[in-house]
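Two quick folds needed for the group meeting slides. Do the first one here.
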Amino acid sequence: MDPQMMKMICLTPVVACILLVAADHICVADVDATSTTIVCTNFALPNGYPCKEYTVTTSDGYILTIQRIEHGRAGPQVGASRPPVILAAGVLQEAAQWLLNSPEQSLGYILPDAGFDVWFLNFRGTTDSSRHVSLSTEDKEFWDWSLDELASFDIPATLQLVYQTTGSQAYYIGHSQGTTVALAAFINTNVRQMVKAAVLLSPIVYLHHITSQVGLAFSYMYLDQVYLLSGASNFNISSGSLGSALLDQACVKVNCGDILNSFTGASSEFNSSRMGFYSKFMPQPTSANNIAHLAQLVRNDGLRKYDMGQVGNMNKYGQATSPEYNISSIPKEFPVLLALGGLDHLSDPVDVQNLIYDLRCSVKTIYNPHYGHADYILGINAWKEAYPQVINFLRSF
């Protein structure tokens, strides 16, 4: 075959994908034949679980990698339906967070063993979702996004991928920032109609009353704005980086002897001996705007869009202040399960109560008084203290 013709054939899917994105459609490609990402190669496949990979291109051009564990180690049950579940991790984390403990302890394994078809969302900017149709991670424009874009583009694209592939509504399970962007996304009727029910683990939809000393110091010292004024576009807290230096500044005000406990809250559930292993997979990259958006939520009441200042807000939103997400518009028939921890310094009881009050939909709760912020995803006893309730909740719809 003529080499030029062969090249054109090979480029056709890419060109078609870019054209679909330009037309505001979702572009989906199944790439399970080249499973190379951490979820599949480091975790699922070695532990005896099937693993596929997909890419989906958002309507603003980001190429997300989504992994799928379609059934458990015992294989698919003949004739049994496998409801799809999307797992979405928090800020500075990727999908591997759901698999860092043993198959008997990790929700990412327990769900397929319980008969669910599990899809792992990697938000833009993380290692597995660091591509764009025209931009490189070296381009400042690549990092020009915050929580708003995760809610407006990444979640809808992933839900549409799952719906197109399975023909079914999906359950959604989010942790930390995965809860914030979920409710922001579910305000959109078209997005919400692709979701059967949602589980929000350690919800941080409202952040005005957090007790995290590091989080409070970072936000009220406006260190997020210092970071942005430096011209940095992605948030990096590696040793020697500006992000690390600013965290050191926050730690001048508070005791950061144990940075995890100082930031998220102490816990008897977290296996600290595995911290070295966990740290291989976090922190993941995110944008400086995203960190600034979270700091804005600490400084202000409610769940608001990214505050660009009066002039920027007028240009983008047509008003001087950034608009608030109206989560009260989510209808009462939409089922939500909130999982709370008594030692969580980010998901404060006052903020969660305000959230429950503002949510007009059907809300159920799980409460574990000895859980910190990370325990619903990394706690060694969550498999028996929380996950059975999560699974029962999902099966009730």
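Then this one, please, same format:
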Amino acid sequence: MSQSVTGMTESTAAALLSKAFNHDKAASSGPHETKKVAAHCHCGAVQFTVGLPAASLPLRGFICHCSICRYTQGTYARTGVVLPPAIEPDWADGGSMPSEKVASYKVPGYPTARLFCSSCGTTIGGHGENGQWSMPVTLFDEKFWEFRVHAFPKSVPDGGKRRRPFGIARTIETPFVAAQPERATDGTERLRAECHCGGVSFTIPRPSQAIIDDAYLRDYVSPSDPTKWKALLDLCRDCGRLSGANVVPWMLVPRVVIEPPVPSDLQEQPYGTLKTYKSSALSTRGFCGVCGATVLLAHKHREPTAAQAVLNVAMGLLRAPEGVKAERWATWRAGKPAWAEDAKGFDEEFTVSLVEGHRRWGVERYGEAPEFDVI
């Protein structure tokens, strides 16, 4: 069963947090067998290995639902691991961290910075106040952790992606601060998307009659409610490595309706602090160059013409007053998260639990687990 630090004695809470930080996983003195695991950003500019005491494995991983993680990554939660004390990355070529390739973002009021690749936007992690490295598990090429900690689950009042407990502890609780509803000058509703630093900020309207009348764009309107857009969970390794989370929630929105208008190729500047990275022959991704948040994804298969391009909008950035799932704005493809079979090869336990939990939520919410086309 999952537990919460709230209401525990100080000693019990300290013991749980000590386990969350893998303090008991540090190497003992003397010789010991070490397992080396490799990690890298998506573009390969940042590469390193970590040597872990074999006897300490698996480490305890965490799933953090706080708003800082959501707004700096564009996801519903960060999936990470705290390396044991004194364990440091062994950077490529025996050197130090390539600072010229790593961007740093300091959250106001926090003593430590968050690091990400300045070329592709991949979240790298950073040092905590205690000097230990905290890193997304998605950086690594193989699994050496078990998710045992839920952090700040009350910051997602509609549940986010947390449908099943993964372990023994949830750490410090924090309340959800609801966003305020927004309206355009004509009084119609708008949904705000904004990264943590505010450098990339835009709004999304409801589907218009012009969208519904368009032979292509109508396919991205909810099949059950013409006032909503389609949404899905994506478990592909590319999205995971770039965002710093095993799963990325996307809302599919025609480019032409976003306000202010998004450039047709995501390249034209300025569009706030948006930077772009071509992650494949078909995909171009937009991320904030200041805080590193995943923001947008453009895919050639969703662009029959420039005027009909449909973008993936990272739903971790949405400021829906009702909660992070933005249910007043989206219908979820709960029956079929994308790339689930591929994700099982990376972390089968997490993937199976997430897919089943999302399907059950869909049945509870809609009476069925919806499946519909997204390309």
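Slide caption for protein two: The helical segments are 10-20, 67-73, 209-213, 237-243, 340-344, 348-366.
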